Amino acid sequence: MNPNTDLSQKIKEATLAAIEDGTIDRDSLRQIVIGVSKLGDVILLWSFDDWSNYPYVEEDEAYARISNSDWLDQWDALSDPTSKKADPLRPQLRAQIHEAIRNVILDQSLGEFPNLVGFAEYRLNPHVDIEHGTPASFEDDECEGEVFAFYHPQGAGQIVGIMEKVPPDHLIYPFGSFFEGGIALFYPEGKQDSLTGSDKSPGVKIILFQDVEAWWTDDNYVMYRSKNEPLSIGLTGGHTHEEWGQPNRKEIERMIERHFLKSAPHLQFISETLPDIENLDAVADWRNRFERYDIYPYELIRKFYPRFGFKTTLRFAASFQNQQTRTRSISTLAWSSIHSKRHREALDALSELSADQRLEEWRIEIHALIALHRFEETIQLVAKLRKAMKIPRKGHRLADEEDILPWELIALLGVGRKEEVSAKLASIKKEDEKINFVRAVILQDSNLKEAQSYLLKAIRSDILNLNLEQFIVEPQLKKLISLAFKVEQKKKTLNYSL
């Protein structure tokens, strides 16, 4: 007889007998733990009416003891139990027990349970030694159980920790398993009602790809929208233990994405699926889906911009009906213009926003104004910000003095108000790349060494993107600026070649 089948039968018989004699209450059972004794001579089974992700057990409380003599015979046959020949034995025992439980699950041979029942292993993971012949010395935390299966048709495969993100800000940590037609999420502690994030009785949610309308990636999440559902749900790596041989969070993220790519590639909603821009009806339908899914538009605009140009991209971004999506799209386009040193385009993009929305994006505007040497307008914007900062706000702050002062100093330099700049600098102790640049400009006529020090600190940042080299007139400092530009250009050339 197949040893796994034989062990499955023994587990089934022992568990059903425990249910029959009342040792296990079928109506309240939540967890079965399976493991080995300290000596490794018997396989033990425990039952619990309360759930624990890391159950702890005592050998004398097991409801069943199954001989592990076949494994011991292999161990005893070794001339040296500490040799490399012993290394495969513990993993083999673990695999045999896992396969036996898998058979029990797939056959549903224990009957039905009103609660979700999970399986955890104990003293099977190779990170804990089984010492033959003498009691092993285990610390309590080394003996914690490890959940590896659930009594459900989709709970017999590999189980991994998942983190589920439910709008607006609910984070739920189910266990998950992958199968050909979808993903099973197990909630042994409840909360399986993802659309509300509310506590429920323990349960299972099956995500069938045939019920998914679309999926996409967002940062480290795979996001999906089920048909006829109002919200998009995110899945990523959850609780895991690398030290126990489990995949790390990044690996789980990749597992989720690979599973969606393999099983539902036709449902992936990405910028490459955007119809031909001349097909207005198809583009409108695609845009409406993008908006309805509430996708953050960074990736879309980043790819749309070089493909269709600024004017078409701005027209597309401004066409969103959802104000949040519209604002995000326009501000993303404006930032893309800044990074491409198309500062007038950045201002043109911001002109599509309302006055309040535009003020929120003041960092983009002030960057563009400075780079375009529109210093008077910069000073006016700083004054407008200071006025707005005095008004109580809910949520995030608009700005603080430390944010806007460096920009103001540059603008004051630009309009020739050096004495005012020097007076303000005297009371500033903070070092900032823009402030360091201003100090270099002020000191270049009186203290070249100190000006050079400040300029070196400044040009290590993105200060070169602000078109401020005209303020540096001292020859040695001009050489520094010129050298910095050449280094920056070489970096860009190297990045393009890679």
Model description:
Helix 6 (298-308) packs antiparallel against helix 7. This protein is elongated. Among the domains are: 3-80 and 87-129 and 142-150, no CATH class; 160-267, PH-domain like, CATH 2.30.29; 433-497. Mean pLDDT is 87; it is low at 131-142. The protein is built from 17 helices and 13 strands. Helices cover 44% and strands 14% of the residues. It has helices spanning 3-20, 69-76, 89-107, 249-263, 280-292, 298-308, 310-318, 323-339, 343-350, 355-360, 362-371, 375-389, 401-414, 418-426, 433-443, 448-458, 475-497; strands at residues 31-36, 42-48, 64-67, 118-122, 146-150, 160-166, 170-172, 175-179, 182-187, 203-208, 212-218, 221-226, 233-237. Strands 6, 7, 8, 9, 10, 11, 12 and 13 form an 8-stranded antiparallel β-sheet that branches. Strands 3-2-1-4-5 form a 5-stranded mixed β-sheet, with helices on one face. A hairpin with a 2-residue loop joins strand 11 (212-218) and strand 12. The longest helix has 23 residues, at 475-497. It starts with a helix and ends with a helix. It has 498 residues and is α+β, with helices and mostly antiparallel strands.
Can I get a quick summary?
By secondary structure, this protein is an alpha+beta fold. It contains 17 helices and 13 strands. Strand 1 (31-36) and strand 2 (42-48) form a beta hairpin.
